[in-house]
């Protein structure tokens, strides 16, 4: 592969220094177009839905992977499937709502009708179609799929790696973060569009958490004794200890909102003595968070060069009693998400970065703490340097070649 082979020759090479990231990666339209081909349609799996989001036959949700709209629907046979959300006649988008319930799906343009298993059932004027026309050739197109603990993954690539190989050692923490058995019930969503390139969002490093977020400091929420791991497929795991009953300094009217009731402790007690926090980020950008009693999946997707949409989905466990469900709901909606008190400031910083990209003198981001030859795969909880491994994965998949040192 040639350096920057499908991009303008004027685009500078990737910096030679391992801990530097070029600003052009966040604001160049050709880079954004290439990301769709090499990342979102690349040899990567994208988590798109959990079983609990579609409990009944006919329940559906729509998602977008890169620029490709998908329809996730539980068929009348109880099976959850993913389809390209496009009529096979002239590519009219079918489902428009974020979530809904449907019987057969009718395209409004020429009234082709598909069932909940994606099969073409009828099309007006069929007698006038060419003699070799067969409805079975026009069923809804299906991307490759895989499931784990009720979580559905899709890949738009023709030959992605086996799902469990790609997940690697993150499988066990993912199982724990999905309640130990994946038997979840949906509490609801928070949705936000951050005004930044999607990579600004995912570059939200572990270093910043206690520095930017005031509530981290006030609550002394993390003790810094956790660890951060990076996997060969680019995934990130941060497993940390948090205080089971953090001190709120008398600031909260109802401190029970930050209490721990033992509903979601990671099983890795070495990393989480009492209450636990795990953040499991699949490469490139969707993550599962399990803080205190919170079960959260953060589905994210770019909606343009300078916007990223994040759907925070919150869950309870199927065995929870009514009090536990209420506790999880209050904790989830108050603590994290776009207005959560331990994550509130992120939106402002993402916007500020996007606004200030086109500035001198620096043309690069800088990640602290990297020493030549250092192993960044196992590091302390709040190190910044391991983000360089996310970027290295990105650089290689995009085919960008480094400058000579
Ligand atoms: S585009 Fe859907 S029926 Fe024609
Ligand atoms: Fe943050």
From TrEMBL:
Name of this chain's protein: Rieske domain-containing protein
GO molecular function, one term: oxidoreductase activity
Cited InterPro entries: Rieske_2Fe-2S, Rieske_2Fe-2S_sf, Ring_hydroxy_dOase_asu_C_dom, Rng_hydr_dOase-A
Family: Belongs to the bacterial ring-hydroxylating dioxygenase alpha subunit family.
Highest taxon above the source species: Bacteria
Gene3D superfamilies: Naphthalene 1,2-dioxygenase Alpha Subunit, Chain A, domain 1, Rieske [2Fe-2S] iron-sulphur domain
Pfam families for the chain: Rieske (PF00355), Ring_hydroxyl_A (PF00848)
CDD domains, A to Z: Rieske_RO_Alpha_N
Domain Rieske as annotated: residue spans: 45-154
Keyword line: 2Fe-2S, Iron, Iron-sulfur, Metal-binding, Oxidoreductase
């Amino acid at each position: 592969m040639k350096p920057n082979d499908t991009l303008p020759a004027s685009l500078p090479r990737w910096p030679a220094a391992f801990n530097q990231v070029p600003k052009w990666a966040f604001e160049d339209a050709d880079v954004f177009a290439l990301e769709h081909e090499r990342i979102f349609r690349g040899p990567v799996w994208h988590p798109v839905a959990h079983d609990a989001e579609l409990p009944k036959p006919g329940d559906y949700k729509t998602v977008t992977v890169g620029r490709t709209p998908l329809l996730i629907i539980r068929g009348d046979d109880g099976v959850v499937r993913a389809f390209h959300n496009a009529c096979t006649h002239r590519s009219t988008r079918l489902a428009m709502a974020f979530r809904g319930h449907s019987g057969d799906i009718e395209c409004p343009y020429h009234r082709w009708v598909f069932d909940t298993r994606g099969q073409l059932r009828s099309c007006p004027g069929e007698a006038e179609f060419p003699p070799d026309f067969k409805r079975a050739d026009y069923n809804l197109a299906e991307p490759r799929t895989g499931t784990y603990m009720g979580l559905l993954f899709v890949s738009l690539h023709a030959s992605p790696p086996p799902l469990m190989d790609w997940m690697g050692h993150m499988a066990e923490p993912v199982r724990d973060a999905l309640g130990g058995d994946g038997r979840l019930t949906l509490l609801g969503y928070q949705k936000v569009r951050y005004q930044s390139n999607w990579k600004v969002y995912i570059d939200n490093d572990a270093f910043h958490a206690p520095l930017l977020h005031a509530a981290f400091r006030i609550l002394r929420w993390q003790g810094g004794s956790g660890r951060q791991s990076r996997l060969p497929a680019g995934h990130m795991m941060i497993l940390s200890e948090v205080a089971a009953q953090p001190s709120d300094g008398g600031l909260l009217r109802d401190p029970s909102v930050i209490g721990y009731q033992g509903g979601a402790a990671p099983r890795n007690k070495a990393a989480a003595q009492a209450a636990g926090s795990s953040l499991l980020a699949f490469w490139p950008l969707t993550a599962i968070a399990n803080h205190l009693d919170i079960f959260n999946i953060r589905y994210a997707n770019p909606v343009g060069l300078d916007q990223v949409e994040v759907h925070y989905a919150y869950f309870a466990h199927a065995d929870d009693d009514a009090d536990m469900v209420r506790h999880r709901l209050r904790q989830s909606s108050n603590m994290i998400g776009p207005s959560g008190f331990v994550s509130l400031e992120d939106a402002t910083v993402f916007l500020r970065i996007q606004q200030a990209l086109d500035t001198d003198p620096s043309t690069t981001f800088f990640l602290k703490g990297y020493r030549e030859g250092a192993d960044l795969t196992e590091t302390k909880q709040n190190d910044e340097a391991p983000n360089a491994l996310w970027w290295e994965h990105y650089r290689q998949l995009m085919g960008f070649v480094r400058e000579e040192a």
